[in-house]
Design goal:
141 residues; alpha+beta; 3-stranded antiparallel β-sheet; 17% helix; Peptidase_aspartic_dom_sf
Length: 141
């Protein structure tokens, strides 16, 4: 069981942080090499360490997910990106903090709901030690 996943429709890959990989006690021999470069939201280039394929269970769906392993600090353990969301046939709502998808037999919908208190805690953890005056928000007005 791994908690504190960020479901991020803006992420082009699924990310597992190195600290999470180590805490899970996974076998290093399961890693596959990758030469893929990533660019963070601040346009900095990040070099992934390797790729690992893990089985992810989301309520009643089990999917094999290729996670890019990166070594950086995060208050999250993993980021589930667009590929995973699309494979789940999921629809996300940032307003309602929910991922909705159909059951395996398409007879009902399943909601994975975010917890506002947990999200605030993760956000606060992320901001610790950061000079808040350097945070710049950009976008259309």
């Amino acid at each position: 069981m791994v908690e504190r996943f960020l479901i991020d429709g803006g992420s082009s890959v699924d990310v597992l942080f190195l600290s999470t990989f180590e805490n899970m006690g996974l076998n290093w021999s399961a890693l596959k090499s990758t030469y893929q470069s990533l660019f963070a939201f601040n346009s900095c280039k990040i070099s992934p360490l390797d790729v690992v394929t893990l089985k992810v269970c989301a309520i009643e769906r089990f999917l094999d997910v290729d996670f890019i392993i990166i070594d950086c600090e995060s208050s999250f353990n993993a980021i589930m990106g667009r590929g995973w969301i699309h494979t789940m046939h999921g629809v996300t709502s940032t307003l309602h903090h929910v991922l909705r998808y159909q059951s395996k037999n398409d007879t009902y919908t399943i909601d994975i709901k975010g917890d506002q208190a947990s999200m605030r805690k993760c956000f606060s953890t992320t901001l610790k030690g950061i000079d808040r005056s350097t945070i710049v928000l950009t976008g259309d007005r």
